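Sanity check

After download, print the first record. It should look like this:
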Amino acid sequence: LPPYFQMQRPNGFGRQAARQWMREMGGLLPGWQRLQRHRTAPPNRMVFYDLAPDFRAAADRMGGFYNKSFIEQVRASDPAKTWTLVPPPSNVDVRLTRLICDTYLRENGIAQGDRLSMASSVELRLPLIDHKLIETIIGLRKAETDVFQSPKAWFKSAVRDVLPGWVLNRPKRGFAPPTRAWHEALFAAYSASLRNGCLVRAGVLSIEGANQLAGGEFPHDAVAPLSFKALVLEQWCRYMFECCKGAQMAF
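Expected structure tokens:
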């Protein structure tokens, strides 16, 4: 139990960091929540995407937003099945690399990035990703683990003759766009579309859930709030509906 209940320092020095630290009781509340998840999870399930705040929020709020018939369909499948492994992997780091390639990298890193770069002329680093790179990384980890090395140790070693030392050793600086301001502006303009919109008529969202999501709630620990995801999906459904209607009229 000690690893679950350890006091932590605030993540920063601002008011928001202090409020979050107090809400989490100095790290004790997340530890308790993590302990409960680990006690109830199947023994062969790896700790993976279920750590993400967005994943947990979607699982915890399922009953409050969706139509009852849609909930029954969703519960028929297990999103954590991908990282529930029988038998358990012998090389955890290799398996995690494989899982990242099969989930985040394939969907967000490649598929969405490829569409964005072609549709909006956004320059991305997709040409640097190919099957040889993936095979090399997985092969290296199969031969010699890098768990105890510093972050990006192999990458830095590969480019040390190309990049100067001050570039390789400079501290990482975060990038924080005005996400909350953008979020509020989007909901001021489009939140009404969620009320009795395509998702409600299709039986995905309940009327109460749609009204709640239309409020634009933004939890402090969310990366992309459920309200924003619902708004994006609503706009996509409306666009696809208009495209299909136009195609039918053309025939």
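If your output differs, re-run the checksum step. Summary of this record's structure: The mean pLDDT is 83.
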